[in-house]
Amino acid sequence: MVVPRPGIASTTQLATTQLHHRSLHTKKCVEVGFAYCPPNVSLTSLIKTNKLPDVTSIAGFQSMQLHHVSQVTTLLNTDHAKFDLSLHWTEASVAHWLLPRSNVVDAFVVVDVGTNRVTDFCSYYHVPMSVLNHPQHTTIYTAQSFYNVATSVPLPDLVRDLMVKAKANNMDIFSAADIMNMDEVLAPLGFEAGGGHLHYYLFNWRCPQMTRRNIGLDGQRAID
Fold it and tell me: Measured in whole angstroms, how far is the alpha carbon of residue 44 from the centre of its chain?
């Protein structure tokens, strides 16, 4: 069993990753204290810096549907084979964890218009957080990056379109751990390191420590 533990390190962890965040609705994030304006930077300038396009840019980018499950399963298993720690996906597990469900998870595919083949996949799940003692806001909504595979476009372009969809879905923040290939995304898309760390533990198995880049398993969920 892999059990990620947020912020708490006990015994010897398998690996440690860090969460990074990117404001989608900048004004709200500043108002609730999740983000702040750097010195000599106005709120207007920060909003302009964080502005995203209104529409996606990748041809064939669309919401994942049931008939995409088989191809997404193959795409995930092929990509995750390069990591030291990852899931072996079945069509049943892909359908259970990744098919879009309102206020739970959103997933998208890129379909080649010529071949009708799924070439890329991206996803996030919803993490609402209560805002206490604020006169205007009661909840802030985080889109947590889940699994992303880019084969026909650069990964930053794929995740940018994912963030466009997240913002359109009223997500306020986009968060991602620095695992898998996400280092390619964090700086170019304006993410900032947060204070949260995730520690991975593998119980009842012997396994050497590994770098976060060799982790192909999302750290927000415990997996049997």
Answer: 27
Kindly list the distances between the CA atom of residue 155 and the CA atoms of 7, 12, 28, 110, 179, in Å, as whole numbers in the listed order.
27, 32, 27, 12, 13
- Give the C-alpha separation, 130 to 123, whole Å: 23
> SS in 3 state form for 88-129?
CCCHHHHHHHHCCECCCEEEEEEECCCCCCEEEEEEEEEEEE
Q: What is the pLDDT of residues 139-191, one digit of tens each?
A: 999 999 999 999 999 999 999 999 999 999 999 999 998 888 888 999 999 99
Q: Where does 15-216 sit in CATH, by number?
A: 3.40.630.170
Distance, in Å, from the CA atom of 181 to the CA atom of 8, rounded to the nearest integer, reads: 24
pLDDT tens digits for range 207-223: 666 766 667 667 554 44
At 104, is the secondary structure helix, strand, or coil?
A: coil
Higher pLDDT pick, 200 / 118: 118
Output the pTM of the full model. Answer: 0.86
